[in-house]
Amino acid sequence: MRLILTPHAPRTEGAQRFLKTGPKRLFIDGEWLDTAETFPSHDPATGAELAQIARATQADADEAVAAAQAALTRPDWAGMLPAARGALLWKVADLIEAHADELAELESLDQGKTFATARFGEMNGAIAQFRYYAGFATKLHGQTIAPSIGYAPPGKQVMAYTRREPIGVVAAITPWNSPLLMAAMKLAPALCAGCTIVLKPAEETSLTAIRLVELMAEAGLPAGVVNLLTGYGHEVGAALSAHPGVAKVAFTGSTEVGRLLLDAARGNLKKLTLELGGKSPALVLDDADLSLAVPGVARGIFANSGQVCVAGSRVYAQRKIHDQLAEGLAKQAEGMRLGHGLDPESELGPLVHEAHAQRVAGFVAQARKAGAEVLAGGMTNGAFHAPTVIAGAAQDSPLLRDEIFGPVVSITPFDEIDEAIQMANDTDFGLAASVWTEGLSAAHRVSAAIRAGTVWVNCHSFFSPELPKGGLKESGWGVENGAQGLENYLETKTVCMVI
Length: 499
Ligand code: NAD
Fold this sequence. Notes:
Helices cover 40% and strands 23% of the residues.
C-alpha cells in the first residue's frame, strides 16, 4: 500500500474560521441554538477532533418540525413568486460556488475524501443541483381538463384543473459518504417545490451541512424554511422519521435503515423516497476498449475509496480479456497513492473511520479464507484500506453479495453474455451497472436486460442533475434528480367546478 500520511490543515480562511468557532449549533426557525449535549467529529486520517456538534433530541425535532410547518403557510415563503424562489436557489448556488474551496476542505477533513473529489465532483455537483432546480421553479404547471361529467345542472358546464402543491414538511436524512451533495439533492428540489425542510446529516460528517445552512440563511431564505438538526440517527433521525408533522422523508442511506423508515412512516402514512445500498456490477465484454475500461472500471470502484452507493464492486470479464483486465486493475490499484485528503498528492483518502476499515478488511479476510486470490491490496492501516482486487471468489460469497462500501472489487470470468447478465442480476440490489463494449447491439441488449436504476455504457458513476437516479429491488424507492425527482415533493390537487 502506497500510504504517505502527512497531516494537512485547511488553507482557506473560511474553513479555518469555521473550525475555530464552536461548538456547532442547531438551526431552528432562523436561530442558531445550543444543545445540552454535543458529540465530536473527527478527521479520519489522523483521528484528530475537528469540532463538537450539537446533539439534537426529540424536543428539538418537535420544535424544528413546528417551525417548518409554520413557515409552510407564512406569506414570506408560501406567497413568494416562483421566479423569486428560483432566484433564491440560484443565489444559494452562487454562494456554494464562492465558498467551494472552503466547503471542499471541510468535506475532505471530515469525511476523508481527497480535496479534488470533494471540490470537482461534489461541490460542482451541488452547485449544479441548485441551478438545475432554480430553473424549474417557474415551470410547475397543472393541467386544465374538460371532464366527461354529464350530470351538471342544465345550462351549466363542468371544468377542472390541477394544481401542483408542495407536499409539506420534508425530513431530509443523509449519509456520510457524500454529505453536501446528498443534502443538495434533497434541498434543491424540495425548495423548488415550495416545501419546508428539516435536514438531518449523518453524525459522522455534519460539518458541510452546517456550513451550507449558514450560506442558505445568508442567501435570504425566510425563517423556518430550512432547519438543521445534527445528531444521532437512532435519536433525532428516528424522531423525525416517525414525526406526525413530517409529510415526507427523503432518505439516502443503508437498506437496513431504509427498512426502519418504512415502519416509522406508518403512523401518518408519510411519503418516502429511499435511496439505498447497492452491489453494482461492471460487465466487460471481449470487444471492450481496454484503454477506457481499465481506468474506468478502476475509478468506478476506487473513487472515494469505494464509499459510493453505485461503486462497481463486482466485475464480470469475458474470458478473452479477463486476464488482461485483472492485471490492469491490479496495476491501477497498486499504483494509487493513499494519504490525507488535503494532501494534493493523495489519490485516495482514508475510509470514514477505522471501524469501517476493519469491517471492509473482514470481507477480504473471509474471501482469502475461502480460497480467493488477492491480486492487489488487501491491507489496512488505521482508517486506510488499500485498493484491493480479488479473483476467484464464489458468486454466492459475501464478497459478491454484500455491500462492502470500501475499495474492494471482485473479478469473475464468463463465456457467454447471457451468463454475465444472469450473474449481474443475481443480487438483492438494483442500483446501477456498467457495460463495457464497442458493440452497439450488445450495449443496448445488455442495458435492457440488467435490473438496475442506472446502466452506464463505457463509463461508470457519471452523474448530472438532469439524469434520474434511483434504485430497483432493495436499492430503494423512487428517483432523485430530473423532472421526475421533483415529483417527490409535489402533490396534485384537482379542482372541479360547475360554471
Ligand atoms: P445509514 O443508513 O447508516 O445512515 C444514513 C442516515 O440515516 C444518517 O443520517 C443516520 O444518522 C440516519 N439514521 C440511522 N439510523 C436511523 C434511524 N433509526 N432512523 C432514522 N434515521 C437514521 O447509512 P450511512 O452508513 O450513513 O451511508 C452509507 C449507506 O448509504 C450505504 O448503504 C450506501 O449505499 C447508501 N447510499 C445510497 C445512495 C443512493 O443514492 N442510493 C447514495 C449514497 C449512499
